[in-house]
Amino acid sequence: MNLLRAWLAGLPAYLWSGWGAIASLCLLLAAWEAVSLAYGPLVMPDPRAAFATLWGLIDSGAAWPELAATARRALTGYALSVVAGSVLGLVAGLSMTASMMARPLVTVLMGTPPIAWLVLAMLWFGASDGTPVFTVFVASFPVIFIGALQGTRTLDNQLHGMAAAFRLPRRMMLTDVYLPHVVSYLFPSWIAALGTAWKVVVMAELLATQDGVGAALAVSRSHLDTAATMAWIAAVVGLLLAVEYLVLEPIKREVERWREQGA
Amino acid sequence: MSMGDRTMNAGRGAVTGKGAGNAQSGWSVRLAARPLFMCGFRPFFLLTALHAVLVLLAWGGFLGFGLALPAVAGGPFVWHAHELMFGFGLAAVAGFVLTAVPEFTATPAFAPRVVLRLVLLWLAARAAFWLSGGLAAVAESWLGGEEGQAVARWIGHLPAALLEIGFACALLAAVAPRLWRDPERRHLGFQWGLAAMAMAVAGFHLDVLRGEYPMRWVLVGLGVMMTLVVVAMSRISMRVMNDALDAARARRLPAHTLRRDEEAELELPSYRARPPRRNLAIAAIAVHTVAEYLLPGSPITGWLGLGAAAAVFNLLNDWHVGRALFTRWAFLLYAVYWLLALGYLLLGLARLGAPLAPSAGTHLLAIGAMGLSILAVLCIAGRTHAGYPLDERPRVGAAAVSIVLAALLRAAAGLPDMPASALQLLATLAWITAFALAAWRLGVLFVAARVDGGAGCEEYHAPRAAEAVPP
């Protein structure tokens, strides 16, 4: 509740600070416009054409089902990896042996390109939702796992000792000593994993499904419709930016505030 | 500052201008001794306000009644834009830097002789530019022919070019060494701004001499002016905003106790004009200015205009410190940034194909951001350095509101389906009202000797309660 109130109170100032981000995004749009002017609309349509196409897709209602399908798959895979990655990572972090053993496995998982998992998933799950969900899960799991592992491994032993010396109740031990520290590692890894999930799901859809943004991208590619391609890309990136900066970043700041104050 | 410091400063000032004084005739010595030349801002701020009225009276006469303007290369629109940018704007910049740079770098004030020379140069540049068309016509009637036309243009315009470039360079030469020698070099922004301004002036005149339409350099000048506004405002705003915050704190604390004071410090954040956001805004404006010069009217410039608007809005993050913002002087400066951002927003939208004239955006920048910030500087720096406290009377508000009105009316004239000429005339009237008020109410202070016992550019110090009561 406190978290919510702090979030609401800081919201106007936080939203206003978004102007800086908008300023740099405008520079990006100017660069995009320059490329489109230099190479022509077939290679790169100008931003206004892409946004007009996107607006047309949204206005006609064609965009929502695709975005919903993509979001459903991405979030399912992501939720699975958040639960599995956090729990397993925390548990592995508790034991030195387990974390030593887990590290090479995670490296293997991270090192395997998502496209390889996608091929396997297509063999196992066919054209169902299972393919993108599984690929998303496998791609974002190691990111969260490592975050959780680091969080538990780096717990301050002295702090632990001090808390024990003061006979801190177990509940306070958990909420005031362990949780803030672990969350400050977990949360950034969740955000990073969300980015991965969102990117991987589009790739998986492009090759494996009949609907979703990835499939729409495949269609626009086959029609050589670069404006629609850029429109879909803008939609995907825009949604990710919105979720990250409007929802996750404020929470992250709130969660990490104790660190700045300590420093 | 003690009496001893003052004499020392006067002594150093005399050394700076040594040698030149011997050749000076009696009238200039007598003129320089007048209170008007006591400090750099006095003549230049007075000329700024007078010139603003004069140029817009002539412009209003041209727009409304078809009265003739001084014939110059490029036509009436070039005359109007040039006079307001490089005449009005540069005079205000001169007044500002001649007063602020000695203060910022803790160097002695500029000697009245130096100020007088710069003023004469500025006046001569005005006269030469206004007469340039007539001079060219006379030369052409003598020379005749195709060849003669180009030569006549040179003859007509060269004096204006030399005087005006000379003024911009002399100003730079006067302040640059002090900015550079300052141990921390915290105010180099003014030096780069003045150098860029001198470049814009030179570019303008080279274009005229080559027979090209020189308006693009006025737009470069406008961009440079906007960065100078951002740089100068950051210095002024620190003072104004923190004064407002102090006042707000004092209101909250009838009795001063340390504990409560600490509490209040925590409740009311202090204001700091932080460099990162300012540098982003300056960079965005600079990139837009360069793009506008290289690719006039391109949609690329449009996105960069939106970027500049966003970067200026981003700058306002520093300003959102609560109710202290809504006090007169703080809000006046705050409004400048809004006009600056909205100007770039309109300019960007126009370039991206929105149905409005780009001139709506440029005039929000020129009238709104430049005009209002210059009025603010006249009212703040002009009064305090002339030895008076800030003017809390309604006329400052009236002048500021009429400038904002002028900016909005002129911008509205660039929107589709608007009675453009009526709006332009109204905007002209509002502008004239504001600067006539400033010229009158501040001018009388600038030409008169100080009454607070201070000398030169010294700032007004509020007499303490104990001192104010006569023994």
UniProtKB/TrEMBL annotation, chain A:
Stretches assigned to the ABC transmembrane type-1 domain: 67-252
Membership in a protein family: Belongs to the binding-protein-dependent transport system permease family.
InterPro entries: MetI-like, MetI-like_sf
Annotated GO CC locations: plasma membrane
SUPFAM superfamilies, sorted: MetI-like
One Pfam family cited in the UniProt record for this chain: BPD_transp_1
Transmembrane helix found in the keyword field: yes
UniProt entry tagged with the keyword Amino-acid biosynthesis: no
A biological-process GO annotation: transmembrane transport
Lineage: Bacteria, Pseudomonadati, Pseudomonadota, Betaproteobacteria, Rhodocyclales
Domain of life (superkingdom): Bacteria
Membrane topology per record: Multi-pass membrane protein
Protein name: ABC transporter permease subunit
Species of provenance: Thauera aminoaromatica
Cell compartments where the protein resides: Cell membrane
Keywords, ordered alphabetically: Cell membrane, Membrane, Transmembrane, Transmembrane helix, Transport
Bilayer-spanning residue ranges: 12-32, 75-94, 106-127, 133-152, 177-198, 229-248
